[in-house]
Design goal:
The chain is of the alpha+beta class. It is globular. The chain has a single domain, classed as Aminopeptidase (3-Layer(aba) Sandwich). α4 packs antiparallel against α6. A 7-stranded mixed β-sheet has the order 1-2-3-4-5-6-7, with helices on both faces. It has 7 helices and 7 strands.
């Protein structure tokens, strides 16, 4: 867009360093506490190690999500597409204050959970995906990220929405989550209804409910070095089992 100049300019062409533009597009990040890593004994006896994903792991995670996009049941196609874009947004620094957690079993990627911090008050839950069946991995990953939001970041609200009937049944209805007036307040995932949990509600009921859905096992932050070393790097599953 060009306008005629209302005043004579001594320099009519301005050059700008794209690093200055990047500072405006990316914005300053909040200082989020690191997720220290935790283990959970799964219902089937295996040990799940949950840690923060590293940025260099994003390409193989996106590659796997491309396979999830081709699954034509329970809305996994749109979940795969959205998770792909969220990982890419994190990778390209186009997602505000994201956190990305991976659940690993013996060096194999088994679970995913992510979200982002809107501000000091609100944590936005994005997606939770179990890539392996039989151990309540999805519930464990959901518990881990909600624990991170309320207990470590110290957010006071948790905003979620649901794409699938199963997700709504387990978490929306299961947690008896209230919702904000719609369409005045919308979740960023497609403008859907915002279901929320407050810190008080988390302390009173929800923390214990989600923990029980995860099999009752608590997060153990005393992770042996052998577990950390075994899961320092991970491979993606050979097949798609969702």
């Amino acid at each position: 867009m060009k306008f005629d100049l209302p005043e004579k300019a001594s320099i009519e062409t301005l050059q700008i360093d794209v690093r200055d533009v990047e500072a405006m597009l990316q914005g300053p990040a909040m200082k989020l506490p690191p997720f220290p890593g935790a283990t959970v004994k799964l219902k089937d006896g295996r040990t799940l190690f949950i840690r923060e994903a590293r940025l260099d792991e994003a390409p193989k995670m996106m590659e796997y999500m491309e396979r999830i996009m081709k699954v034509d049941h329970d809305f996994y196609d749109i979940v795969g597409a959205r998770v792909y874009s969220e990982i890419l947004g994190w990778y390209r620094h186009r997602l505000k204050d994201p956190y990305t957690l991976v659940g690993l079993v013996d060096g194999v990627w088994a679970g995913f959970a992510n979200g982002r911090v809107m501000n000091e008050k609100v944590n936005i839950s994005l997606h939770t995906v179990a890539l392996d069946r039989g151990g309540r991995i999805g519930a464990v990953m959901y518990y881990a990220k909600a624990y991170y939001a309320f207990e470590m970041i110290k957010n006071t609200e948790w905003w979620a929405t649901y794409e699938s009937y199963n997700g709504w049944m387990r978490w929306g209805l299961g947690m008896a989550q209230p919702s904000y007036p719609w369409p005045e307040v919308q979740h960023e995932l497609g403008g859907a209804r915002v279901y929320y949990v407050t810190k008080n509600y988390w302390d009173q009921l929800i923390k214990d409910y989600v923990k029980q859905m995860a099999g009752g096992a608590e997060l153990d932050f005393n992770v042996p070095d052998s577990i950390r070393k075994a899961n320092e790097n991970f491979t993606v599953p050979e097949g798609v089992n969702v």
